[in-house]
Amino acid sequence: MKIGELSRETGVAVRLLRYYEAQGLLTSSRSEGGHRHYDSEAPATVARIRTLLAAGLPTKVIHELMPCFAGDGTGLQACVLDHLKTQYAELDARIADLTQARSALGDLLEASAHA
């Protein structure tokens, strides 16, 4: 399948598909003319990438997790659960920091409104 076909099938822009390939998340072969060709598993791979990106994981982490998918779905092997739990804890910490910053900003807005 050519890159345009993969883009249409997955709803992911061609530019992003090239980026995924540059990051080592997606592979293709090249024709003699230099055109990318993807295998029949490429749409499932793109779906997995999109799932992990939606979970807030950076592409470096996604690269590490790609070989760890269990079966055809988006479930991952148990051996990576500790890694996912670490990412989850880091996300919780960022949420806590943002909540604190939001509260402080709200206090400033309230104090400014009364000034």
From TrEMBL:
Cited InterPro entries: DNA-bd_dom_put_sf, MerR-type_HTH_dom, MerR_fam
SUPFAM superfamilies assigned to the protein according to its UniProt record, in alphabetical order: Putative DNA-binding domain
Recorded GO MF terms: DNA binding; DNA-binding transcription factor activity
UniProt KW Membrane keyword: no
PROSITE patterns: HTH_MERR_1, HTH_MERR_2
Superkingdom of origin organism: Bacteria
Entry keyword Repressor: yes
TM region positions: none
Residue span(s) of domain HTH merR-type: 1-68
Keyword annotations: DNA-binding, Repressor, Transcription, Transcription regulation
Protein name (record): MerR family transcriptional regulator
Provenance organism: Amycolatopsis orientalis (Nocardia orientalis)
Record lineage: Bacteria, Bacillati, Actinomycetota, Actinomycetes, Pseudonocardiales
